[in-house]
């Protein structure tokens, strides 16, 4: 009886150990079968987050996990189609804007060129010719430069140096003073003393400010006031040197409410002869400097563009 009991005990332990080993092996196999598609799903999710829509998960199952993978692959396909459609839409908008701008400008230039052989002795005509043709060529150059800048997206392709904001503001004052006077605009430039230096690109920031100032002058229809200021502030507006705040304020008609939220979107414009890229590019440049730009506007009271550039933080890499 004791011998039989001992054999039964040994058989029982052997059975228990074998059962546990089999259970462990089965668990490992099931875990691998479940983890493999989940890992592939996680990897594909990271690819999608980086804007890559070319990798599908080669997985065939009819259970809930298979349905999930199928839905994910279908989502990637839809996102890819949407991305292509969006790019084609942007290309279409850009082409439409270019055609519109070039058509109007070419008609004007063509008229001058056709008349020049007959009126080259007309002093006033020659003066208009000498003034208009370079202006139109410069406009073509600016338009193509805008498209080139926009096509680069968020890519950083300009260098940063230590920048004196006060000196930058004085340069802007010299550049826009005559333009404001010609448009009968009263110009005020206020620069706080002791502004700290920042890391930035002076040419790109000049491009932003000249664009904002030009828009402001055009919005006032040859009358009004333009106030450009630079102060050191913190996030809450207290006088500290955490941010440089540059404000461009005009006394024009203001921006309609329905356009405020879309004002920085590419190809959105309220101008009859505008492409709608200036503000989009300006925001991109400011963001590349680690800063922020916003707009405040009231009907019949004017518009303010406010740029905040960090003093201590490095530009976006």
Largest sheet: 5 strands, mixed
Low-pLDDT runs of 5+ residues are none
Order the strands across the largest sheet as they lie in space.
2-4-5-7-6
Kindly report the average pLDDT value: 77
Radius of gyration: 32 Å
Name the overall outline.
elongated
Total helical elements:
7
The end-to-end span amounts to 82 Å
Along the chain, the helix and strand elements come as HHHEHEEHEEHHEE
Q: Which bin fits the share of residues in helices?
A: 55-70%
Q: Structural class given helices, strands, pairing?
A: alpha+beta
Percentage of residues in DSSP E strands: 5-15%
Number of strands: 7
Overview of the structural elements:
The structure is a single chain. The chain has 317 residues and is an alpha+beta fold. Helices cover 58% and strands 15% of the residues.
Features:
7 helices; 317 residues; 15% strand; 58% helix; five-stranded mixed beta sheet; two-stranded antiparallel sheet
Concise overview:
The chain is an alpha+beta fold. It is 58% helix and 15% strand. The protein has helices spanning 2-49, 64-119, 123-151, 165-182, 202-219, 257-260, 278-288, and strands at residues 161-163, 185-191, 198-200, 224-233, 243-250, 292-298, 302-310.
Topology:
Blueprint lengths: L1 H48 L14 H56 L3 H29 L9 E3 L1 H18 L2 E7 L6 E3 L1 H18 L4 E10 L9 E8 L6 H4 L17 H11 L3 E7 L3 E9 L7
Parallel strand pairs: 2-4
Antiparallel strand pairs: 1-3, 4-5, 5-7, 6-7
Helix pairs in contact: 1-2, 2-3, 4-5, 5-7
